[in-house]
Amino acid sequence: MRKPLLIICLLFVCSFGFAQGLKLKNVLVIGQFDKPEDRYAIEVNLTELLTNTGIKASPSLNILKQGTSAVNLISDSIQQIIKSKGFDTYVVVNVRGYDRIFKPSETKISLEEMLNMASLYHIYRDEATSVSFEFTFFKNGLVIYRDILKCGNVSNRDSVIKRFRKKVPKLIEKSWKS
To answer: Which among 5, 92, 110, 178 has most CB atoms closer than 10 A?
Structure first.
């Protein structure tokens, strides 16, 4: 009778330890979008919001040449540049979908596999009233954390960015920084 109780207590303690957050210190921001203007908007805005909360951040656009694919971030030479700038964590941001409640994906995937995936969605789609962004954090090429942010009551691309800028700081403080 004591063994099941002990196991339940251990599981509770372990889950409490994992639920405490990401404790993010530095991050390279990678927007996974087909349109360059969408990628630029999300990378720059997320980098600014992270920096404002005291987390060292840089957009991948500062590392890669204009028009270069994010897949090049995997090359050894660029990996050395990223490490020399003090970054060991990556976040890949993409749109998970529209007008539904989504949960973070549980698929175990490497950074290289993630960067090789095509983007399915744009920041905004006509007739969509909400957009869900997925944030996938990587360290040493492996997923360490995933999060979803739903931006509701949107009517155009600018309103999506406005909601994104309003909601991300709360998400950073609640889940990524603590």
So the answer is: 92
Backbone angles phi, psi at 97, to 5 degrees: 165, -170
Q: CA dist 169 to 8, 82, 111, 116, Å?
A: 35, 25, 25, 29
User: Among 91, 117, 143, which Cα is nearest to 34's?
Assistant: 117
Domain membership of residue 80 as a residue range: 25-176
Run of H or E including 111: helix 111-116
- Cα gap 126→56, rounded to integer Å: 35
Dump pLDDT digits (tens) for 117-127.
Answer: 877 788 888 88
Residues 85, 68: Cα–Cα separation, whole Å: 20
> Per the structure block, which two tokens stand in for 48?
């600014």
Q: Which CATH number characterizes residue 118's domain?
A: 3.40.50
Number of domains in the chain: 1
